Fold:
Amino acid sequence: KYQVLARIFKDFWKMKIILNLEKNLIDTRPGLIKAIRIAIYMMDYKPDDEETVNKFLYKPVVEKAMEIFSIKRVEAETFNKWYMDYYGRKGKYENDFFPGAYNFLNKLTKNYEVSIITSLYEAHAIQILKKKGIFEYFEFIKGMSIDNSINTKSDIISNLLETMDNMDKDE
Structure:
């Protein structure tokens, strides 16, 4: 009788943890950097140094390209197409777990409901997590939307919290 009650309370009070994919688990920089370098090369933009490339990391590419290279939106969208062509095919898989991250995740998911947020497109994040064999570890996965209606970290977090709130109401 008490074991059943304890199990009910344990599930009821289960803490929810939110992790950031590219800050806590997986170093996605190698694929992102290569995709940015390819787009810079294809568009023949300068500079293409490390400092310039790093400014793009985890930012909306079109807006960042407009800012960094002082170009119009149409050119920035072409830049983004080159970036997405490489990243969508290969770059998203050029990543590694941070040291200790996989073991940390294994332990964490035994006791907590874990969700993930990311500055990557949500679809790419899902593909990465599946390829790494950890997709099933997460209650929710939220990232940027393909249509860019959700494209800032605060938008992503708000989207996740709204989804969690709706799930709590449904239960």
Remarks:
- The CA atoms of residues 26 and 98 lie 5 Å apart.
- The radius of gyration is 19 Å.
- The chain is about 60% helix and 15% strand.
